[in-house]
Amino acid sequence: MKTLRLLLGDQLNTNHTWFNEVHDDVLYCLFEMRQETDYAAHHIQKVAGFFAAMRNFAGELSERGHRVAYLTLDHPDNAQTLEGNLNLFISKSGIGRFEYQLPDEWRLDLQLRDFCEKSPIESQAFDTEHFMAGRYELRDFFGEKNYLMESFYRHIRRRYGILMEEGRPVTGQWNYDVENRKKMPKGHVPPQPLVFDHDLSHIVEMIEKQDVATIGTIDPKHFIWPVSRRESLDLLAFFVENCLPRFGDFQDAMSPAFWSLYHARLSFSMNTKMISPLEVVQRAVQERERRKDEITIAQIEGFVRQIIGWREYMRGIYWAKMPEFAQLNFFGHERKLPEWFWNGRTKMACLRHAIGQSLHYAYAHHIQRLMVTGNFALLAGIHPDEVDAWYLGIYMDAIEWVEITNTRGMSQFADGGITGTKPYCSSANYMDKMSHYCEGCFYDKKKRTGQRACPFNSLYWHFYDRHRDKLEKNPRIGMMYRTWDKMDGEDRVTILVQAEEYLKNVELL
Ligand code: FAD
Ligand code: SF4
Fold first, then answer.
1. Nearest CA owner, ligand 2 atom 2
2. If you average pLDDT over residues 503-508, what whole number do you get?
3. Residues 118-157: tens digit of each pLDDT
4. Which ligand is nearest to the CA of 369?
5. Would the pLDDT of 180 be above 90?
6. Using alpha carbons only, how large is the chain's radius of gyration in Å?
């Protein structure tokens, strides 16, 4: 009996046991589809990057002797939906059995389960063999208790023995977060990022011809992202060699002069499964073993925490809380996202840089996403649906399981505290502490009110004031209200009026 095995665009795991042996009666299928290009307005680099990586993967499987069918977006037979294309191959190629790897998105999981129920042929789902924890492991680990990243992180670290010795962390300490919050000194130059140089003109032309609505810019002849396992491994090697020694130090730093600092830029490679989180972490730990003098424990722990900790934790929350999670709006925020989120034309230097580089590279690092764009959206009371749509489209690595948990959860606190214990927000103070943005800004970081007062300063208090009923009892926030209450009454009114004025004219900021 012939078997059709489906491979989704983010299931490019060459080491999957499916590929251990070549079977002539197995047909692997990959489809470029409008259902995937159109469910959000994606960055052009993201669409082109996914297609390039899928095409490389299909080519590699064919070279290894597997039978592969690939539908490009402009193929005349392409039905542009999963069901349509699967039915096409099932009828055309005499398929008697359907197999797929469990999708990471709720939407696709539902679609495939539904397809299998309706299909007359036998079907079976397989694990993707990528993640370090099971789909529902976080839900079962915490049960009715509140979710806490730190406990889950330690649980996974113990299981894989990462930075562990006889069941304890190698240095006796689990967490080095406090050491990892440095501003980049003026004049400090991080390593020049390793970028690739692909000519993707043919793919970009096809996307344009098919009228796919995209955002952002691309240099089609010089595409910079890794689109194969080999390149992903090269990027990993570059990271551990050049960036890991200072990763922890500067993981929260921001600079208007550099776009990737000491970050790994491995999220696209990992999210498409070209490389696995375990091999990334093991390679980094191996490098630390080799260069203990240069790579301190704080650097390696800071990195391992992102992958074993945050990445696995977010995936666990997604599967524990979807689909309800996608509707949560704890603060009842309703505003539209300002137009300048789509073009970067704002006088606020921090936002202009973070949005500008996102449009240019389809990338911003974590603190830019959390404390610049996310922070502004939260303080300004933007509807979480609007915020999600922006984040889901703009980044190379944006796939719903990791986008929505970070955006609606961690950044917008729309989940009311499932992901984190308090909202991540700040005034200009934090921005100035961690970046060099404020120095060149039209606005004055020190002013709360009056001409050119930094919008973050009044919006910050406006946010706390308008959500007092929801936040005051949070033990991690109570102090904010005591500070607010101690301020002169007239000052408080002026701050709130200033914030209202900014919110009324948000498009002009
Ligand atoms: P590094 O800083 O070098 O970190 C190494 C790796 O750790 C990353 O590649 C990533 O796999 C993992 N990691 C770090 N932080 C997180 C986190 N909070 N959640 C999950 N994994 C993490 N990440 C995505 O992969 N896709 C998204 O769509 C996405 N959306 C985000 C939206 C918001 C509002 C925020 C605050 C964060 C988002 N993140 C997302 C998490 C994080 O910003 C990116 O993973 C990271 O910036 C990717 O760049 P990097 O590979 O250089 O990361
Ligand atoms: Fe951003 Fe305010 Fe600093 Fe300008 S002054 S860069 S708006 S925080």
1. 454
2. 96
3. 999 999 999 999 999 999 999 999 999 999 999 999 999 9
4. 1
5. no
6. 24
| Cα distances (Å, whole numbers) of residue 290 to 235, 282, 342 | 19, 12, 44
CB contact at 8 A, 414 and 333: yes
Ligand nearest to the CA of 354: 2
**Test site for ligand 1: of 254, 306, 391, most ligand atoms within 8 A of the Cβ:** 306
Query: Atom 29 of ligand 1 has which residue's CA nearest to it?
Result: 403
428 C-alpha vs ligand 2 centroid, how far in Å? 6
Q: Is the CB of 130 under 6 A from ligand 1?
A: no
Long-range contacts of 125-129 (CB under 8 A, 24+ apart): 125/99, 125/100, 125/101, 126/18, 126/99, 126/100, 126/101, 126/102, 127/101, 127/102, 128/11, 128/13, 128/16, 128/101, 128/102, 128/104, 128/273, 129/13, 129/15, 129/16, 129/17
Interval between CA 306 and ligand 1 midpoint (Å)? 8
Q: Please tell me the distance between residue 431's alpha carbon and the centre of ligand 2 in angstroms.
A: 7
Which amino acid, residue 8?
A: L
Contacts of 419 (CB under 8 A, 6+ apart): 147, 314, 317, 405, 409, 410
Contact 30, 68 (CB under 8 A): yes
Q: Torsions phi, psi of 450, nearest 5?
A: 90, -175
Q: Measured between alpha carbons, how far is 387 from 342 in angstroms, rounded to an integer? A: 12
Q: Quick check: CB of 406 below 6 Å from ligand 1? A: yes
- Residue 178: is its pLDDT beyond 90? no
Q: Distances in Å between the alpha carbon of 129 and those of 175, 228, 271, 307, 431?
A: 28, 18, 13, 16, 39
Show the tokens assigned to 370.
């959390």
Going from the Cα of 398 to the center of ligand 1, the distance in angstroms, rounded, reads: 9
Measured CA to CA, the distance from residue 436 to residue 255 in angstroms comes to: 6
Q: At residue 67, what are phi and psi to the nearest 5 degrees? A: -85, 125
